[in-house]
Amino acid sequence: MALVQISSDEMGKWQGDLHALPKTAPVAIMLHGYKYRPGDRTDCPHASLYAAEAQNAIQRSQPWPKRLGIGTSDRPAIGFGWPARGSVWAAWRQAEIAGRALAEVIDALKADAPHRPIRLLGHSMGARVALCALARCGQGHVHSAILLNAADFTKNALRAQARHAGTSFQMINVTSRENAVFDLLTELCLLAPLQSERALGRGLDGPHALTLRLDHLDDRSALASLGFAVPPPDRSICHWSTYLRPGTGAIYRALLDGTLRPDVLRAALHAARCDGAEPQTDFDAQVA
Fold it and tell me: In sequence order, what are the residues at sequence separation of 6 or more whose Cβ sits closer than 8 angstroms to the Cβ of residue 117?
């Protein structure tokens, strides 16, 4: 099994053994969000989200490696832990420090095996860690980044994309209406209204980015055409819906191991949306 645990401290110093990873297979780096902290008695990500087997009953903390089918010799993975406790503002600042540490990890991985694809998957403030790392790591060192209900702003995503302009890098911004309250709180709590900032949950598209909206019927139809069945949401508010929803694990697994290319997903989404009609959400359908 190739599942490596990396921890970054408050100063951005990281520790972990990267040499345990095979040099010929793509590496997936998992990035947790708010409230987790390496070594914490109840919320250590290495003992929950990144564990090989479930060690507690909290649904949102069930292991990602099993859900995503990674952490094996042919699908190696890194669980990157960082101190995300304290106030939301403290965690926000700490995410940038963790991003600098992650950039060092990414560059070290590339120095060790230059042709090995590196793909990121981050939830909530873990997406901010990913964006901060992307803005600092070597150009083209990351193949793709999957952001789940990202707790960050479009300007930071655009800065990260600009760093990798001219490369094959792609960003998949996964959102759903269940997270709308949290997107609003991100904007309000982090003073975005004073700077006209928009949360990533509102969408981001471009040459290096696409937004997958799990609450849009067209987008779920596009996923179905590719062989991925995702049911409608079963609740109106949920910050963890983008990875707890049945069927989502298979999508991310395929994106992480390369069997689903971002350009193929982009084409399917475009085909499903091309009728020009206003996209209908699952919530619209329920009202109708």
Answer: 26, 27, 143, 258
- What tokens were used for 149? 């209900």
Q: What tokens does 96 get?
A: 């940038």
- Looking at the domain covering 3-287, what would its CATH class be? alpha beta
- Cα 3 from Cα 20, distance rounded (Å): 8
Q: In DSSP terms, which residues pair with 210 in a beta bridge? A: 172
Output the CA–CA distances (angstroms, integers) from residue 44 to 37, 47, 48, 191, 222, in the order listed: 5, 5, 7, 29, 36
Q: Is the pLDDT of residue 14 over 80?
A: yes
> Which pLDDT score is estimated for 1?
60
Separation between Cα atoms, residue 71 and residue 82, nearest integer Å: 19
The predicted model scores a pTM of 0.92
Which pair of tokens denotes residue 100? 């600098």
Can you list the alpha helix ranges (DSSP code H) found in 113-233?
125-134, 154-163, 180-189, 217-225
Q: How many CB atoms lie within 10 A of CB 74?
A: 11
Give me the pLDDT at residue 131, please: 97
Alpha carbons 37 and 14: distance in angstroms, whole number: 13
Beta strand 3-8 with 144-148 is: unpaired
Q: Which residues pair with 99 in a beta bridge?
A: none
Domain boundaries, the chain: 3-287
Tell me the per-residue pLDDT of 216-257, one tens digit each, with 9 for 90 and over.
999 999 999 999 999 998 889 999 999 999 999 999 999 999
Tell me: the pLDDT tens digits for 122-145? 999 999 999 999 999 999 999 999
CA torsion sign for 67, 72, 76, 82 is positive
CA 269 to chain centre: 19
The two beta strands, 14-15 and 3-8, are antiparallel
